[in-house]
Design goal:
The structure holds 2 protein chains of 2 kinds. By secondary structure, chain A is an all-beta fold. Chain A has no helices and 11 strands. Classes of the chains: A mainly beta, B mainly beta.
Chain lengths: 112, 115
Amino acid sequence: SQQGEEDPQALSIQEGENATMNCSYKTSINNLQWYRQNSGRGLVHLILIRSNEREKHSGRLRVTLDTSKKSSSLLITASRAADTASYFCATDGWAAGNKLTFGGGTRVLVKP
Amino acid sequence: GAGVSQSPRYKVTKRGQDVALRCDPISGHVSLYWYRQALGQGPEFLTYFNYEAQQDKSGLPNDRFSAERPEGSISTLTIQRTEQRDSAMYRCASSPQALDGYGYTFGSGTRLTVV
């Protein structure tokens, strides 16, 4: 079963635009992470936000977390063609046995 | 090594055969995880280890699947009597400690095809 659900499932934007995707989850968490997966390749860890944090930045990435709504968002600013990938949120917490549970992902296409 | 290494990269096997998938985690990483990923979907948890101890195997689909990490380093995921529905990408990941708050480092995966 999947804890996180991403929205939208797919997103198509022009290079230079911002991309925003959302993740909702069901049970209480300790941390929420975002991963990127380029076509057919491995998963790369992007950013981790703890349950007591509300916002975090890393380069062109901005992550927010609203534990009252059990949701998170990932914003990629000034997108590039190389940002074309699937993006997954993943949560861990005592309720889920301390392993990461992934959502179904958002497929982002950045057109040059 | 510098990253998580999985072998083989590709495995084609006939239905009914047993397969063993290998994962070599980052040196010193305590925790090792196995996931399975179907095309177009997110990774699905199978099992994980802290050192040599299997902490959680709740994601293993049935008793044909087993995993071990006898010396707390390299791990093997074994699938017995493979079926076509076992075809998927099998991914291994490791993290520094058993505590939460660390991102996982994933290997490139083993793509298993059962014909």
